[in-house]
Amino acid sequence: MSRVASIDCGTNSIRLLVADLPADGIGDLTDIDRRMEIVRLGQGVDRTGRLAPEAIERTRVALDRYAGRIRELGAERVRMVATSATRDASNAGEFRDMVRATLGVPPEVITGRQEAELSFTGAVRGLPVGGYVVVDIGGGSTEFVAGTTTVESAISVDIGCVRMTERHLSGNPPTPEQIEAATADIETAVDKALSVVGGMGDATLVGVAGTVTTIAAITLGLSEYQPERIHHSRMSTADIERVVADLLAMTYEQRSALPVMHPGRADVIGAGGLILRTILNRAGVTELVASEHDILDGIAWSLA
Which residues does the UniProt record annotate as the domain Ppx/GppA phosphatase N-terminal (predicted)? Predict the structure, then answer.
């Protein structure tokens, strides 16, 4: 076994996984520590094109805690990737300098294609051999990737829960007009993505990341967030549409009161749900498999 640490820094959250990899590369990761903090690194990036100083500082504070935990647990190798917000920001160099000073290694600002491939690796490992389309709904972008045991096609499109909230859904709750405008924006991007991955065919749709897993928790009626119940659970399109409609009709305060809702997700979950609902409808599928394993696991496996 070798112990590795992976960090995924997205538009909304920064996450850490410290895990032991099997020596022969066969089998599962053994989680040692898995944690997430909402830092909203992509605050305002869609509007300004720059990372806000306070967002960089929030990320630094969380990353400093992660660096201490990595040292404490004795990880031999560390890989940190940064995704949509840092791809889009004109001052990404300030962010890279901060990471190098705090963590001791530079972040890799990966492309949307690389992000999709890592998400696919993490999501499908442990599932039966077959055809899959994995969707990773992030804060700034959403990745679509199709394949079997390896990636066959992938695309990243600039729709994410933070980006769509800031661009369209300012109401509390959002107005029908705001929802309609967001939906039109999302549909254009989803149709483009599905044309690249070749549609669904006989493939199984797998959803990863916080929007999907939170909606799964609500659909399952959980009184607290339980990853083991959510992982590989199946949700019908009808159930997801019902939950998303409820979320969009709620105020921020009502969403925050849901027992499975992370405090940093309550203001953007409506937009995330709208993206998910649109994907299901445009893809013409009746079911979604939720996965707790995603890009974070793919980063860890890349260190094998």
Answer: 28-281
Residue 32's domain comprises 2-110
Token readout for 152 is 């066959």
Looking at residue 66, which CATH number applies to its domain? Answer: 3.30.420.40
The closest of 2, 67, 16, 15 to 41, measured between CA atoms, is 15
Is residue 250, in this structure, part of any structural domain at all? yes
Low-confidence ranges of the chain (pLDDT < 50): none
| 224-251 burial code (b ≥16 CB/10 A, e <16) | eeeeeebeebebebebbeebbeebbebe
The CATH number that applies at residue 271 is: 3.30.420.150
Residue 80 sits in the same domain as residue 163: no
On whether both 159 and 263 belong to a single domain, the answer is yes
Please check whether residue 129 is in contact with residue 102, taking contact to mean a CB–CB distance below 8 angstroms.
Answer: no
Peptide bond into 173 cis (omega under 30): yes
Residue type, 77: R
Contacts of 124 (CB under 8 A, 6+ apart): 132, 134, 147, 149, 206
**Separation CA 10–CA 119 (nearest Å):** 13
Do 204 and 190 lie in one domain? The reply is: yes
Distance CA 179, CA 202 (A): 31
d(CA 100, CA 267): 31
The pTM (predicted TM-score) of the whole model is 0.85
Burial tier of 25 (Cβ tally within 10 Å: 0-12, 13-18, 19+): exposed
pLDDT attached to residue 185: 96
In a domain, 301, yes or no: no
pLDDT tens sequence across 57-109? 999 999 999 999 999 999 999 999 987 677 778 898 899 999 999 999 999 88
